[in-house]
Amino acid sequence: MNSSIVQLLAFEKLNGDNYAAWKSNLNTILVVDDLRFVLTEECPQTPSSNASQTSRKAYDRWIKANEKACVYILASMSDVLAKKHESLATAKEIMDSLKGMFGQPKWSLRHETIKYIYIKRMKEGTSIKEHVLDMMMHFNIFEVNGGAIDEANQVSFILESLPKSFILFQTNASLNKIEFNPTTLLNELQHFQNLTKGKRKEVEANVATTKRKFKRGSSSKSKAGPSKPNRKIEKKGKGKTPK
User: Where is the composition biased (Low complexity) (predicted)?
Assistant: First the structure.
């Protein structure tokens, strides 16, 4: 990535409210670097073993251009937005996602975003980091489109969206009136998830060991079982006095 491209990318980083200017700047970069075709052309089929040299070159050109375009796009947006989109495979997928977020009237985006925030729930067993970053991104979208959610309410929305495995964390935060901002909350939630994962594995290992011991113990008891009634009968016999 040459210095002029770096300067252009840094000049207009996407933060939500500058979508139109950002898109214009990015399109200029993609055109200058001969990469914009990946947004309008489908990826060629993976060439077979007997494919022609022309087919292979077309495929390789598209793959390399797409990878480069993805790097440019992700580098030209805020960290939260980049984290959200880094898992997408193509530049077109990233641009389509951003268009859905910012390419609509502000009132419509505010409505859709606050609805998403209210109903968003984390699924048990998924990454707390990805969940919180996703919510933080939507807080940002709501704000850049004219809405306002202060940090205290952002924290409340995040805590309310957590699954049952975080009940202890929620209770502790409530009882001790711990104050978080979204970033410190994310750090603490990650620590809590890692801690509970470790304990869960330890408990599962202990349960498995106990089950094995129980099975061995129950089999030995069943062998000794039939002799118990005989011992009781002998005791009763010894207790009688001869006449």
Answer: 219-228
